[in-house]
Amino acid sequence: MHEVNAILTIAYRDFSKFLRDRGRIIATFIFPFVFVGILGSSLQSNLGANAGYNFLTFIFIGVLGQTLFQSTASGVISLIEDRENDFSQEIFVSPISRYSIIVGKILGESLVALTQGIGVFLFGFVMGVHLTVFEFLRLAPFALIVCALGGAFGVFVLSNLKSQRAANQIFPFVIFPQFFLAGVFGPVKNLPPALLVLSRIAPMTYAVDLVRSVFYTGMAEYSKTVLFSTLIDLVVIGAMFLLFISIGTIAFVSNERNR
Questions:
Q1: CA-atom Rg of the chain in angstroms
Q2: pLDDT for res 119
Q3: Do residues 163 and 79 touch, judged by C-beta distance below 8 A?
Q4: How far is CA 208 from CA 65, 183, 200, in A?
C-alpha cells in the first residue's frame, strides 16, 4: 500500500500541475487548431476529392493519436526536470521504489494526455468532425493503450538523457519526424524504401494506426485509411511497450542508484 500511495500521489501531482498550467491548457487547443483546423481544412480542399474519404476526419483522428502518444512521452521525460528541481528532489530521496516513480509518472501523464484528448474531441466537434457517443466510448480503452506506449517510449528516451538541456535539444528530433513517418497528416502506405523502413519502426505509427483502425472499423474507407489490422497494431504495441519499459526502467533505476 505504501508504494501504491506513492504512485497515486505522483500521478495526482502531475495532473494537478497540468490543471494549474494555463499555458499548457491553451496549447492543448492551439495545436489541434493548427493541425486540424488549418492544415486539415487546406488538405481537404486540395486532396480530399481525390482521396476518396474525408481528409479532415482522417487528420483529426491522426492528431488525436499523436496527441495522446506525444503528451505522455514528453510528460514522462519531464522527470529530468523534476530531478534537477530542488523542490522535486524530495521524490528521489524518499523511501519509495524508483519503479513506483516511473509507474506514477506514466499514470499521471496518461491522465493529462486523456484530458488533452477530450480537448481535441471538443475542437473536432466545432470543426465539423462529429463522433457519436458509441465511437467515443469505443476509442476510450485504446486511447489508454496509446498513452501507455507513449509513456514507455518516454521512459526509454529518458534513460539515455542526463540533463534537461539535452532533453530539450534531442526530444524534438526524436518526436517531430514521427509526425510525418506515422502518417498523422497523410497516408503512408506507399513510401520510398528508406522512409518505409523508418515509418514501420516509428512507435507513433502504430499508435496513430491503432486509433484509426478502431475508428474506421466497419466503414468503406477502412482499406484506404488504415495500415494494419487492430490485432497487428496491438501485438506490435505490446512488444514495443515491453521493450521500452524494460530497458528504460532498468537504465533509469541504475542511473539513479549511481547518483
A1: 19
A2: 79
A3: no
A4: 5, 8, 12
Q: Is the pLDDT of residue 101 over 90?
A: no
pLDDT single digits (tens) 10-55: 888 888 888 887 777 776 666 666 665 555 555 555 554 555 667 7
Range list of H helices, the chain: 2-20, 22-32, 41-51, 55-77, 79-84, 89-93, 98-127, 133-158, 164-181, 193-201, 203-215, 222-225, 230-257
**Residue 205 near residue 181, CB atoms below 8 Å:** yes
Domain count, the chain: 1
Largest alpha-carbon pair distance within the chain? Answer: 60
205-222 residue pLDDT tens? 999 999 999 999 888 888
Q: Judge residue 1's burial from the number of C-beta atoms within 10 Å of its C-beta, 0-12 exposed, 13-18 middle, 19 or more buried.
A: exposed
Q: SS3 of 189, please? A: coil
Query: Coil, strand, or helix at residue 99?
Result: helix
Query: Rounded to two decimals, what is the model's pTM?
Result: 0.86
Measured CA to CA in angstroms, residue 116 lies from 33, 72, 90 at distances of: 13, 10, 28
Q: Which domain holds residue 123?
A: 2-257
